[in-house]
Amino acid sequence: NTHILCQRAALAESITIVETQHPRKKELAQVLLQRMLAFRQELEKRNGGNPVAFRVGLSGPPGAGKSSFIEVVEKMLTGRGHKVSVVAVDPSSCTTGGSLMGDKTRMTELSRDMNAYIPIVLCEGAGYDIVLVETMGKPLFQFFVVFLI
């Protein structure tokens, strides 16, 4: 479990670096993303050109049950040996162009599951084979999620 926690901490730090607006850290973010993309391409090559992860987009209005649905599906998938990443995106943020939402508070079982992680390229490179992308149900956001999956 300590090894998994270290991996999750490194992934969390990588996500923070990639999302930063700090000028010096942006350079590090570029290097990190370039290496991760190269690593993912190598994994896809070894996988016969197939994607390394299966991506699913979910969109709906607040209170529609997206988080509840994700938690049930995640539990089923991790029970079958998959590593699941949940990326909850709010593309409405005008300062960053999008942000990760804090759904971990609503997905209590998910937050305790060592095979699931809440923040796409970094998660895939870290070995998550299923990425669930959640966003709000406004038409623009539904359009946005198509580009993420």
Please state the average pLDDT score.
75
> For this entry, what is the oligomeric state of its chains?
single chain
Query: How many structural domains can be distinguished in the coordinates?
Result: 1
Structural Rg: 15 Å
SSE layout and pairing:
Elements: H1 2-19, H2 23-46, E1 54-60, H3 66-79, E2 84-90, E3 99-100, H4 108-112, E4 116-117, H5 121-125, E5 130-136, H6 139-148
Parallel strand pairs: 1-5, 2-4, 2-5
Antiparallel strand pairs: 2-3
Helix pairs in contact: 1-2
General description of the model:
- The protein has 149 residues and is an alpha/beta fold.
- The protein has one domain (2-148).
- Helix content is 51%, strand content 17%.
- It contains six helices and five strands.
- The chain has helices at residues 2-19, 23-46, 66-79, 108-112, 121-125, 139-148, and strands at residues 54-60, 84-90, 99-100, 116-117, 130-136.
- Strands 1, 2, 3, 4 and 5 form a five-stranded mixed sheet that branches.
- Helix 1 packs across helix 2.
- It is globular and about 40 Å long.
